[in-house]
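# step 3/5: fold
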Amino acid sequence: MQMYHANVEVDDRTPITRDNSTEVDAWMEVLRQYHGSPGTSIRGFREAGLYVPAENLAQATTSATAIVSSLFGAEAIAIEIMTEKEFDTREGWMPMPEIVSVSEAAELLGVTRQAVQDRIRRGTLQAEKVGDTYVIPRGQLPAQLLDSNPEPADK
């Protein structure tokens, strides 16, 4: 199962105003569980953006359409739907790499902290300085296991 992002428009052009703020609060309560929000489309229709879990695109489309149509009490007239990964990519959001400390890297590599710090200084282990300490992208570690000259942990 994966997450899909959907933007669903319904056939209702009733504006969202302060006069219907109680209704909007009720929508927000429902959409909160889908990490969604209501809005107005560029053509003036009510819409909602939300995330739904599904086995495939067809199931996600059916779920998102049913949720938003029921929420607004109007028939869906348009939907844009894609995997969460595709949505994030289109929005320019990059996944945050998993990072480890120097001590964690040393344990994973079976070497001392000093050996990890030496590799960082030599440039054979990619790391970023955050404050006064280094963090290492976990994805950099497997390549280091192939190092032809690893320092022993008991050094």
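# step 4/5: annotate
The chain has two domains: 2-90, 99-145.
# step 5/5: archive (pending)
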